[in-house]
Amino acid sequence: NHEICTRAGEGYLRFLHPVLATDGAPPACTDFLAPYTVTVAGQAFVVIDTSAAEDTCPAKGCDGAPYAAQLAALAPPPGSWLLTHRPVWGIKQTGMLNQALQEAVGATGGRLPAGIALVLSGHMHILEALSFADGGPPQLIVGMGGTALEHAVDRKLDGLTVGGRAVAHGFTRHRFGFVRMEPEPDGWRGTVVSAGGHPLADCTLRAGSLRCR
Asked: By its UniProt entry, which InterPro entries does this protein fall under (predicted)?
């Protein structure tokens, strides 16, 4: 969740930049970091910097080319999670996002790189889980862990289309909390937990499917 340079970005990079400091000085602040991969216990997490990706294209259009180039250069191992600040696919009470990232995916054949099993994002201050009819990577948005919540999304998500993808199963929660993900032999199980530590929902992630209830 890269912070932009005009909003304490230098401090963010000092503590969380993937490149080590040189002679005690952190790398210069930049608003567009190169992708990197972190592997923990065999699970790969591919991080791309989408902080500046436009949710809605202005009249002159979005600039998805930088993100398309980064996606095209990725070669993630099977089962990787793509971590982004802004979701590639998100549904609000009125409107959809992120148009710049959807343009980038469209420029790379309409699909994320092979090997990506889940897109995990923040930015929207709610919980939202989207599984798609095409069997491609689901989108999980976990944005209810910090600042004020956004307006609740209470419309039916199943059957809607976002970025050219039809939603097979959609789920939202409008509560502060977090999600705990635990590996299973055939995928992952997620528990949505309230700020008080109480379970709010259960999720299962399998190949091409994310279902919460």
From this structure: Metallo-depent_PP-like
